[in-house]
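Request from the bench team (R.T.):
"We need a structural guess for the complex before ordering more adenosine-5'-triphosphate. Sequence and SMILES attached. Just send the C-alpha cells back."

Command: build protein-adenosine-5'-triphosphate structure.
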Amino acid sequence: MIVKSLKIKDYRNFNDVDIELHPVLNIFMGNNGQGKTNLLESIYLSSIGRTFRLNSENELIKFNENISKIEVSAIKNNQNIKIRLLLEKSKKKQVLINGVKLDKTSEMIGILNNVIFTPDDLKIIKGSPIERRKFINIDISQVKPKYKYLLNNYKKITTARNNILKNYYTNKQNKDIINIWNDYLINIGTDLIWYRNEYINNLKKYAVGIYSDLSGNKEIFDLSYSCNIGNITNMDKNGIKELFKDKLNTNIDHEIQKKTTLYGPHKDDIIIKINNKECKYFASQGQQRSAILALKLSEIEIIKEEIGEYPILLLDDVLSELDNNRKGYLINYIKGIQTVITTTDDNDLKNLTQNYDKKLYYINDGKIGNITN
Ligand SMILES: Nc1ncnc2c1ncn2[C@@H]1O[C@H](COP(=O)(O)OP(=O)(O)OP(=O)(O)O)[C@@H](O)[C@H]1O
Ligand SMILES: [Mg+2]
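Reply to R.T.: structure attached below.
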C-alpha cells in the first residue's frame, strides 16, 4: 500500500500543501513547532478518521478558518483510492472514498492501513489499561472489520446494562431485564475476547523475535492477555461464555452496589514483560521504547499477513530516542515499507539512510519544501 500524494488545506498550521510522496522513504525535517507531527496526523486522520492526539475536531481546523480539507491518493491492491476528508467547524466531518460519502467515519478504518509510532506511545506501557485497550482496539479494527462493529454494539450494551444497574431496585422487572442484557453482553463480549486473544497471540508470535533481535538476543519479551472475566487459556468459545455467565451471576450484588458493569472485555488488560518482569514497573526508558517498537513492527507484520500488503508506517521523531543498534535495526527493517519519518536532527537520519533511495523535505512554519539529496 502506498500513499502517492497528499493535499492539505487549512489544517492545523498548514495553509496549502500539495506533495508527492516517495514510495518507500520520506523524511521530514524541521525545528520544533513547525508542523511535523501535524503532517503525520493528517495521514493518520485519513486512515483512522480521528486524531491520535487529545484534540477535538474543531481544534484541527486552522486557527481563524472554518473548513479544513485533506486529500490522500493511494494505491492498494493495485487499485487507486482517493480519500477526502472535510472538517467544518461545529459540523460532522465528512469522509469520501473515491467520491462516495460514508455514513459513518468508522467505516473508513481498514481502507488505508497505517501503523504509527510517536513518543507518546510510551503510554501504552506506562498508562492505564485504557491505553492498552485503545491500542489493540484500533489495531484489530484495521484488519477485522467485524471487530469495530462488535465493539460499538458492546459499548451500547454496557451503557444500557449500567442504566438498569443504576436503578435496579426501582423496578421489579429489572431482575428479568438484566438477564436479557447479560445474554447480549456475554455473546458479544465473548466474540471480542476471542478476537483479542487471537490478536494478542499473533502479536506475541512476532514481537518476541523482534525484541530479541533489537536487544542483541540479550532480553526476553513476553506478552499476555489479562482477561477480566478470568483465565481463558485453552478455552473454546462455549467455555468462555460459561465463565462469563458465572462471573456475572456470582457478582450481581456487587454490580448493583457499584451501579456499573464490572466484568467483561471493557476491563481487559495486556501484560507486557521483559525478562519476566512487568515493563510498566521495571523496564528502563530504552527498554520501554524497544517494547513499543517491537509491538509496532509486529503490527506491521500482522497487517501484511491479513491483507497481503504492508501498511504505511508513520514514525514521529522516535529515532532520536533509540540507541545506534536499535536505530540501525529499525532503518533496516523498514526497507520495502512506505515510511514517513519526522525528525529534528537531520544529520543523524541522513547518515543512517545514506544508501537509501528517498525523498527529503523540510517543514518550516507550515510550509513544506524539497531538499535534494
Ligand atoms: N488548529 C491550528 N491552527 C493553526 N496552528 C495550529 C493548530 N493546531 C496546532 N497548531 C500549531 O502547529 C504548530 C506545529 O505543531 P506540530 O506538533 O506539528 O510541531 P512539530 O514540528 O511536530 O514540533 P516538535 O518537534 O516540537 O514535535 C504548533 O506551533 C501549534 O501551535
Ligand atoms: Mg512533533
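Two things stood out. The first strand starts at residue 2 and ends at 11. The chain is about 45% helix and 25% strand.
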